[in-house]
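> @MW can you paste both from yesterday?
MW: sure, first one:
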Amino acid sequence: MGNGRITIAFGGDVHFERHVKALLDRPDGLAELQPLLGTADVAVVNLETAITTRGTPEPKSFTFRAPPSALTTLAAAGVDVAGMANNHAVDFGPQGLADTLAAKDASPIPVIGVGRTAAEAFAPAVLNVRGTSVAVIASTQVGDLTATKFPAGDAKAGVAANLDNTRLLAAVRAARAKYDVVVVFLHWGTERTTCPDPRQFATAAALEKAGADVIVGGHHHRVLGAGWLGRAYVGYGLGNFVWWLNTNTPADAATGVLTVEIDAAAVAARAATPREQWAGLPSVVVADHYAPLTISAKDGVPRAAAKASARLAEWEAARACTKLKGTP
């Protein structure tokens, strides 16, 4: 086990549509995000797009796609893991899905939440941070066309979907038995709401019981509250991140990077303790930090927010409806 603190940073939804597509003209199109993401030991974002230039659009109001170079652009931004368990990963049908899986195979960073089978889709990205293994699992609980038409199965390609939590909880228990730190990156909740819905509450509680250390996600296009639930840290909504702004709503442009700190010594102490005695142990997540940002209407890039102290206070206040604690 390593000593000191392990930092894990999270950003919300990313796509490269319309004017945002210009960021892909250069591999370093998002390099200015390096100070926000690259300084963390692990950085995770939600890549909300099919990775393809082919295929037929699914019958949806919005369909997103990007070429494989998007993964290189994310890597240059400091992203270590791209989650694709979301409602846009299969926007261009079976052909787009096949291309996405090929891009995943060739990706410079791990891509999670999509696979040729459920076992692959629910498999974690595992990163070694100074001797501590960090497993990151992705899944979507959004019951849209993607999760209902393209859920990964025993012999079926698609996204990791937890409309029923059975597979997700099994994946978390398996990771808990094998790795030091378990992170669950979710697509969940109700769009444009600012408080968790009942399914989020139930899923967060079940994941904490199954052994998840960090449970973070999005889908709302809004920033929701975060804090501690038992021995887990939960962030209910990350908001947009690299995104077009097709409305003038300030809440659509409000975003940030959520970073949690893991105490590696506490992780080592837990590993030396029999599982039946874990109930008396504190959370290994010992601190959180939120850096408020505002997405530019010009190019879709999040940058330092004006009135950052007020935005930070808003983020703290959002915890009120989450049933979470502000300290471990």
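MW: second:
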Amino acid sequence: MSTDPISDIYLMKRRKSRAGCLTMLFATIGVLILIGVVLLFHRAARPKDKPAPEPVAKTKTGTGSAAKKQKATEERKAKPGKKEATAAPAKKTTGKKTGTAATAPSKTKAKTEPAVEEAGEVPADTADDGVADSALKRARSRLKKGDHQAAREAALEALNARPDDPKIEGFLNDLAMPLLASQRPMPEKIEYVVQSGDYLGKLAATYNTPVALIAKANNIQGAIIRVGETLRLFDGTRHAFALNISKSRNDLVVAIDGKFFKRYRVATGRDNKTPVGTFKITDKIMHPTWHRSGGAPVLYGDPANPLGTHWLAIDLPGYGLHGTWEPDQLGAQTSDGCVRLLNDHIEELYTILPKGTLVTITD
């Protein structure tokens, strides 16, 4: 077998060339892998996140102009607003005046009080005044429309909100007799159809109400009532009048079931002669005779008779309520111990009050 030297040389060169290329390829791959490992190691060695506050902390602790600017910025952010910023000097001023800052809360309180009112927390007195004024206005409107009972209810609501108010009591005073001594309806009245055998005295005894009130309320003339006639009667078996007399105020308040009805001006006894306590009306006399102690009786109409037009005796002998011919002495302690009223006023009480009505007298 023959050998060609030229072919062998060429073959050897090819082999060497191939081996060199492979070597370069592996070397390149190795270098790339090494670079990749180095990069990965370097990235892993670096801190992932730098603490954000570090630059701020350095600025805060610094002494340069940048630190001062940063501090000023933070102080501006910490201030809640212009109102509090302006309030701070006021505290200092107060402190200079008093030597302490103890008065500062009072200024703060003064500023916050209007806010309480704006929030709807109205003082109780103001709220009661509003209720009273509104109810009184409603009462006047109801009276203008002719509804006396609705007017009375609204006025009582007003008086409950503002007790002893003279304007409200004056309205109720004017309303009292036109409502009670008429056929106008009231919760305290009943409707009664006259039956055969009825007469005023019988009805008065049945319903514990005076004959005079039945006659006046139903416009009865001559004490004659007719079968089938409808009457409105105050039901004294279910509702009660009561009198409260004050010696210090020299006034008398009439109530129905504890509700204000009317107030009268009176005179009480000199030197505290009028007795104190709870009594009952025991007798009612029109055109009374005065039985003075140790003297002859003085008839009605005699100028020497001081009892006026009507007399209401109480269950304490010698004492009672009566009219007077000297109205200028009312409102003071000027009587001999009895309770005096204007003749027109004692006549009203005579008309509406049954025997047995409680009379309470206080100092």
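> thanks! The chain is about 45% helix and 15% strand.
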